[in-house]
Amino acid sequence: xxxxxxxxxxxxxxxxxxxxxxxxxxxxxxxxxxxxxxxxxxxxxxxxxxxxxxxxxxxxxxxxxxxxxxxxxxxxxxxxxxxxxxxxxxxxxxxxxxxxxxxxxxxxxxxxxxxxxxxxxxxxxxxxxxxxxxxxxxxxxxxxxxxxxxxxxxxxxxxxxxxxxxxxxxxxxxxxxxxxxxxxxxxxx
Length: 189
Fold this sequence. Notes:
The protein is mainly α. It folds into 2 domains: 6-127, Rossmann fold (3-Layer(aba) Sandwich), CATH 3.40.50.300; 133-188, Helicase, Ruva Protein, domain 3 (Orthogonal Bundle), CATH 1.10.8.60. Helix content is 47%, strand content 11%. The longest helix has 21 residues, at 168-188. The chain is extended and about 60 Å long. It starts with 17 loop residues before the first strand and ends with a helix.
């Protein structure tokens, strides 16, 4: 909204520095990409694995480069989406933390502090729920596409019910596996 309606953001009114959270595999990256498009921002999408290196100082250099590229983006507007960001710092519940993980955690928090208030305390959390029954049924249809089948509307409805607790990504994998079943039978024959 600040980029579309700057006149509404005056005085103490500031844009939120939001973070989308749990559960995983529910389309957070698509949401972040849509926000970047709406805000006319440069979109950076990286996995935490892209920022971790076994070489001393390499992880820090990669993170530094990411934030510098974002700062230099056109119009100085950027959305950085880091998937699985919690794995960068290790889990606090793991008990003992290695010196390397502690070093990486300290570096990461330093960069988060630099991006303040984006990091210090996330102002807003967005909960993206798992799809409901009707959405799961529709996802089965979408992922089945134009593949010939004998499924009725009742079958799609049943599949949507049976897939309770599944994410969109889970349903995609489920349908993909089901589509491979005839090929497996041929291979066994």
